[in-house]
Hints:
Blueprint: H1 3-9, H2 14-21, H3 25-35, E1 41-42, E2 48-49, H4 52-66, H5 71-74, H6 79-90, H7 100-104, H8 106-113, H9 117-131, H10 133-154, H11 159-180, E3 191-195, H12 204-215, E4 219-224, H13 229-238, E5 243-248, H14 254-267, E6 273-278, E7 290-292, H15 296-305
Parallel strand pairs: 3-4, 3-5, 5-6, 6-7
Antiparallel strand pairs: 1-2
Amino acid sequence: MTEASSALAATLGIAAVERDTGIAKDTLRVWERRYGFPRPARDAAGDRAYPAEQVEHLRRIKRLLDAGHRPAKVVGMPASALDALLKDTFGASTGSAAEPALRAVAPYIELLTRHQADALHHALSLDVLRLGLADFVVDVVAPLNRAVGEAWMRGDLQVHEEHLYTEIIQRVLRAAIAAASRAELDPRHPRVLLATLPHEPHTLGLLMAEAMMVLEGCRCIQLGAQVPLSDIVAAASAHAADVVALSFSAVLTSAQVLEPLAALRAQLPASVALWAGGGSAALARAPAGVDVVADFATLARRAREWTRPGR
């Protein structure tokens, strides 16, 4: 094996980098053109091949994006500047762990870091029964997501541990949603189509939203992550949706949020409401006709107060 072929053997393809870092493939390609990073090699088939050090650099970038920094600021930074910004951003973040909500979920983080997956699943499932689904979403899942995110951004959690957490919490939420769903749709409550747009791989916020709306009598149709606009429009028609609900994380650029939102609003019938929520700061500039939902309590109230147009 030559030195060059040995180096390529230690690389990751773009799909693996997307899974590892949580950064969408299209976003990686945009950054490569716009900022000159990442700089993948090419394998024998001409496909992108990312060296391990670039993947680690991308993980650092993702931590900063999740903390609210803009891609234009951090993607082109050299490693030394990126490390300094990480230290400035998260060096004092341990103080936030003293907040009561984060202290309350610390035992779950301990189970996660000790790799006690069955115990974590059991504890969370018991909390659903003890608290009820709505309080579980607001008082356990929301602060636990924040605690896991902060631990990952500080480097206290490995990527595989964050993935394990996501899988467990999704299993718990799906089981609770199935138990809470009503067999018959009350026509006084909306049919809600849930999805994320292209470039958005995160679906946990969608499940949390579905849980809150199911409790309000909504019939929810979950399409999942990175759904093309044309498919959302077709699904909204096929399922006679009253509302299309979308989730946006902080990793997306403003253009990746605002442009498809405007396009989707233009393609959906005026009678179909378009709700958007999540951690993206770009939602503060959402186009006309898009209802931005600030938090899960507001979402539940919006679903409860919804009335069919013309009534």
